[in-house]
Amino acid sequence: MRLTRLNYILTAVAFISFFLPPVWAEAQVLTDIKVIHATTGPEQFDSRLKPILHELKSVFKYTSYKLLKEQRFDLHFNEEGWVSLPGNRILLVLPSETDGNRIGYHITIQKNNHFIFQTQVLLKNNSSITIGGPELDSGALLINISGALQ
In this structure, is residue 14 part of a structural domain? Predict the structure, then answer.
């Protein structure tokens, strides 16, 4: 009888936990997007990009960096944020998962309702990553994404 009662309890706990969303599903992710135009022209550096200067210079070969747009989102997991980009493009960012130390993002760029770029990144909590995007005016768009669990 004791074993049967324990089986009922364990079955109930398993059933309830199966239908409850994970704890992180309720968390929010503060996501900051910087859209940057990078070129190899005369050396120029937008002072608003100073916090990521080292990252840009160590990863990319460009000599000029201009911040085109910055947008901040408070997103739930599996909630999409979007930013309009030059060239009739749209950047979609979606925080998809976390282990508490890292945040997974799905990142997509669309043009005319067609996907032209898709990737996934695993970003350390409270940090940023810059990814190269499509070509633009003798240079390229760079997308800097930072994320912090709230």
Answer: no
